[in-house]
Amino acid sequence: MANTEKDAPALGPLGMLRWAWTQLTKMSTAMFLLLMLAVAAVPGSVYPQRIQDPTRVTDYIETHPTWGPIADKLQLFDVFSSFWFAAIYLLLFISLIGCVLPRAKKHWESMRKPPARTPKRLDRLPVHRTLTFPTEESGLSPQQAMEDARAILKKRGYRVDIRTEHGFTSVAAERGYLREIGNILFHTAMIGVLIGVAVGALFGYKGQKILVEGDTHVNSLISYDSFTPGTNYNPDWLEPYSVTLDKFTVEYDRQEDSPSYGDDISYAADLTFTDSKGKDQKQTLKVNEPVRVQGSNLYLSGNGYAPIIKVEDGEGNVAFEGPVVGLPTGDPNYTSSIVLKIPDSSPDQLGFVGMFLPTGDYAATKAPVSIDAAPLNPTLVLQSYYGDLGLDDGTPQNVYVLDTATLNPLNTMAMGNGIVLTEEANQAELPGNRGTITFEGYKRYVGLDVQYDPGQGLVLVSALLVFGGLIISLFVPRRRVWVTAQETQIDGTKAIEVEYGLLARGEDPRLVLEADKLTDIFADRWGLEFGED
Amino acid sequence: MTSEINTTLAQWSELFMYLAAITYTVAFLAFAWDVAANSRATLKAENEAELEPEKELVGAGAPAKARASVKNINSVRVSSTEQGTGARGMGYKKSAEAKLAGHVADSSMRWGTSTERRPAARVAVVVLAIGAVIHLAAVLSRGIAAHRVPWGNMYEFCTTGALIVTAVYLITLIFRDVRFVGVLVSGLAVLMMCAATIGFPTPLGHLKPALQTYWIWIHVSIAVLASGIFTITFAMAILQLLQTKREKAILSGETPKWNFMRLVPSSQALENFSFRLNAVAFVMWTFTIIAGAIWAEKAWGRYWGWDTKEVWSFVIWVVYAAYLHARATRGWSGPRSAWLSIAGYCCILFNFGVVNVFFQGLHSYSGL
């Protein structure tokens, strides 16, 4: 039997596991995984990420036909949900658990045991002191000195024990057990953060909705412009409430000499919430001030202008009337792109594309531009097209993009008959008796983000515990002190020699100060006076 | 209603900012002069020492005992010994320490351990302090002029950051003689001021709505403070690497180069000290991330979304977490931990300089 064991040096499956476990829970492996995690996160900032901006990802893949699809296969656009990123952090967390569990067990045991054994030689310790003084008058015995030391150390928060080892009696003291508890708390709470994140990803949701003044959003799947449920979230769980945007107010910097003149200073959206029982409640939504409603949170994530446009077709019927959401082009003066598709007009379907300018101005250029973010001179600049919009065959289209390639131009800037509408001149005829377009004013709209994250609370609590644990584990010193006393003589008179050594476990830059402090307290107790050297 | 911007005060602030930058430059030059002068002075001392080799040996053994806080009086005899603290902080053996004694500065970095006269360094510290006062006036007047915190764009991050670096350094100087990093710290402060005034000049304006909350006080101030401390430990890490190399040379019996490094404590002392600073800064960085997450939840509807800035804050946190663990990992203390500290700081620079300016993300507050 013994031979077979010798002949089989290969590890069994259990042995392999044990070996892997030992390797994984090594400190150097944890270090390596930590650094890997840092490196692995970097592509997440280099490549556009789907969780932030799926359009940029699509653009990237289109502009890099070779590398794009490969990068996509490598999950470079979904770094933080990629298998390799997950592999690293899961290994790291397993390593962490493998590290923390034995340490917790060990600490639990050490907390129930008396302080560590006294070393044979205290003078080998990092900090070592000896006090030698005569005891003729006081008659202090070594036993009494150690009793005093025990009491002093106990008062300073040490756990103390008097014992006889190696043939001499000593006081053993230890403090700072909290340090290791902090350390374990820090690492355990990290697991809490991970679980909280997972709960949010499984059972939360987020949705976006563009809401024009006067419109109402009913909290159901169909009403959202985009909706991303968590892996295990059922949209039927959405709380039945509705929200109406009553008014959106923007405040501008109107100080003449201010460098930020004309910039937006504050936004406020007045909302009315109606719960499932039909009860109304008014609330103001601001940036940095989300509104919490029935478990989910509403955030103000964007805003813009929606010009109200009325289109009558060639037969005099109203083919369209209402606000058209303009997408801000990123210009601080809120130049917003407008696309309007009118499939229900005759004789032809109509398409409009152009810009809404809050403050249109001709001064500098031929084409009007916006010179202020506020609606001081609302102007609508449009080109119009007729033909087949391609909506009838059911192919989904982006409502904010009009493909003009297959359409015939009616009014364009190039042809010199582009439509420019203002509050005064608010109507234009479309050539060839195809109807009229009227600019009836504008409304503001807001971009609402609705979010529900049931893991958020757990993440917050865990993060605070991480923080607390970190502070404790770094700044509560773990110290051991041993004190021993014996009779001796100074110049033939009776004296006592008190010897004490200090040892830090982990970082403790103030160990020497602690020794100084102990020296002072001992001196005080035994009536010793020091002079300057 | 938002209060009006005081444009006159804003202009004064900009002028003071330039003045502070110039003063820092003078401090930098004085620190550099100190290094150069000491290079020569130590060369001279070395030549003398070669003539009297005995003298140096005596000096070498002495400091270990002299610095211990021995208190002694007629009837009470006290003796004490101490070594480095912490499991890995023990440093060199006594014999090696004795060999290094004349070649590195006292490791306690306390004032008054060296009798060397360093007039240039004194001038440098005073000029740096004057610069800091002017700089403080500049930063405060900018904040007062706009009735808000002076950290809303790159210009303001840089100028406030430089002020924090100088302030942290000057405060450290009260407790420890760390004039040896003066060249690096004042040099970095000058660089930051140049970056602000030349690279990112931004006229004083109101904050964007997203920044108008008390969270900017909490989140950004601690982030800037942490970065300030990381700047100083970065400088120390560089010196640590140089000193390690030099110590190796000395221990193997070669004549050490870079005589000015004699003003710098041993690599072990540098490592111990920067570890303490890094630990404090790491706690602050953890706080920055948690506070940032709470703010992000309020502003953007999610506490963490892997925005580029968040990615890099995470990378920085992980690198410094690795640094803290390195001390307890066999084979990772010494130069390797210094490299981690340097890598962490490079990530901070990248996060600040490159991410703010060139990357798209929600933290695009560069004001450019």
Automatic annotation (TrEMBL), chain A:
Residues 27-511 form the ResB-like domain. It is found in: Membrane. The chain crosses the membrane at residues 83-104, 184-205, 457-476. Keywords: Cytochrome c-type biogenesis, Membrane, Transmembrane, Transmembrane helix. It is a multi-pass membrane protein. It comes from the Bacteria. GO terms for biological process: cytochrome complex assembly. GO terms for cellular component: membrane. InterPro entries: Cyt_c_bgen_Ccs1/CcsB/ResB, ResB-like_domain. This is Cytochrome c biogenesis protein ResB. It comes from Rothia aerolata.
TrEMBL record, chain B:
GO terms for biological process: cytochrome complex assembly. InterPro entries: Cyt_c_assembly, Cyt_c_biogenesis_CcsA, Cyt_c_biogenesis_CcsA/CcmC. Signal peptide: none annotated. Keywords: Cytochrome c-type biogenesis, Membrane, Transmembrane, Transmembrane helix. One of its GO terms (cellular component) is plasma membrane. It is found in: Membrane. The chain crosses the membrane at residues 15-36, 120-142, 154-175, 180-202, 214-239, 277-296, 311-326, 338-359. Pfam families: Cytochrom_C_asm. It comes from the Bacteria. Coiled coil: none annotated. One of its GO terms (molecular function) is heme binding. Residues 152-363 form the Cytochrome c assembly protein domain. It is a multi-pass membrane protein. This is C-type cytochrome biogenesis protein CcsB. It comes from Rothia aerolata.
